[in-house]
Amino acid sequence: MKNSKLLLTSALVGSVALGAVANAETKISGGASYTYSWLSGATKALNDQGAGKEVQIDISKSETLENGLGFSAGFSLEQDGTDSSFDGSEGNFMKFTNGNTSVMWNVDKAMNLSQSATPRVTADIGNISAGMGTTAFKYGVGSQAQQSSWNLEFAQKMDSGTIALVYVPRVGDKGGNNDNIDTSDVKSGTATDIIYRGNAGVDGLSVVAGYGRTDAADVTKSDIDVQQLGIGYNFGKFAVGVTQANIDQTDATSDTQREYGITYSVADNLSLGLQHVNTDNNSAENEKINVVALGYNLGAVSVEAYYIDVTNFGGSATAANVDKMGIAMRTKF
Fold first, then answer.
1. Buried/exposed 102-123: b ≥16 CB within 10 Å, e otherwise
2. What is the C-alpha separation between 26 and 5, in angstroms, rounded?
3. I want to staple 191 with a disulfide (CB 3.0 to 4.6 A). Which of 26, 168, 179, 303 is the partner?
4. What is the CATH number of the domain that holds 232?
5. Distance (Å, rounded) from C-alpha 20 to C-alpha 32?
6. Domains identified in the chain, total number
């Protein structure tokens, strides 16, 4: 998550540093998200309501090395719901920078195709409930490199945006203890994403385009190929956009999803958003998701209220409509 940052000088952390480094900065940031939502499922037994929680601490440092290269590194500690410990696979990275060129070894940090160009007020699209199964809409499509595995990102910044090559040497590798190899559910094969994100030299324009390929986990599956293009435009109080993704799945089928969105700035700190997602996953019917969201920024805290309606859940022609509504309060520190 993007957070405001609390700056600690190197003098304050010198007592725990391995050595003194000139021009070094250590930053601590984080955030907390508290939600309450109501779910109307396919049956009365699946109707539910309840609270949700996510908290995260981010620690990072940046400095200039003796050879003139820029260097930064960091990690995050995330705890969701009733987790008894922090997730240590969040936001780990070491990054070397020379001008506008960077190389980063990381997990959960690289550019990825889940970063849509379609404007959104809430990020909860497709996140319905584990008890309902999963929607056909794949919010994180093409993000295998960033989401699940250690990867190497080569990025080049330009006036019109940033282009990145993200390479995963071993799909599913979340890292072992110290210098040990991760043997827990590690899949064979590699993954590669090529992604562009920027304004293509046009003020107000937002473009996210990319191609991703992931090797199959075993011989019974097919490789995954993803082609995605999203275009958004901000003109004053309105922002509009559309994103299309074509996904060749491991089951040898080709899925297509389109996400449309429009947001309107009702006031300086108040935004209204409408979204529609249509997913064709080669099932009996296309799944359709409609979202209405309202966001209010109070400075130290933002408040979101949203309503999500899903028709033909998962692509089923017989599935009952699923509705979810919720309130989210988010703060950063």
1. bebbbbbbbbbbbebbbbbbbb
2. 10
3. 168
4. 2.40.160.10
5. 32
6. 1
What count of other Cβ atoms lies within 10 Å of the Cβ of residue 30?
A: 20
**pTM given for the model:** 0.84
> What's the rounded Cα separation, in Å, for the pair 6 and 31?
12
CA distance 108 to 58: 12
Phi, psi of 79, rounded to the nearest 5 degrees: -135, 125
> How far is the C-alpha of 113 from the C-alpha of 195, rounded, in Å?
7
Cβ contact 165:196 at 8 Å: no
Identity of the residue numbered 92: N
* Domain housing 158: 5-332
Residue 51 has what DSSP assignment? Answer: E
Within the chain, strands assigned E span 5-9, 25-40, 48-64, 70-80, 87-98, 101-107, 151-158, 161-168, 191-198, 205-214, 224-235, 238-248, 254-267, 270-280, 287-297, 301-311, 322-332
* Token reading at 83: 């987790």
pLDDT digit string (tens) for 100-145?
A: 999 999 998 999 887 789 999 987 666 676 566 678 787 554 445 5
Dihedral angle sign, alpha carbons of residues 311, 313, 254, 246: positive
Query: Which amino acid is it at 4?
Result: S
Per DSSP, the residues of 98-112 read ETTEEEEEEES-S--
Cα 174 to chain centroid distance, Å, stands at 17
CA separation for the pair 129, 231 (Å, rounded): 29
Helix (H, G, I), strand (E, B) or coil at 9: strand
Structure tokens at 296: 């209010």
Reported as a single tens digit per residue, the pLDDT across 218-259 is 655 667 888 999 999 999 999 999 999 988 866 667 789 899
Distance CA(121)–CA(132), nearest Å, equals: 24
Distance CA 298, CA 285 (A): 41
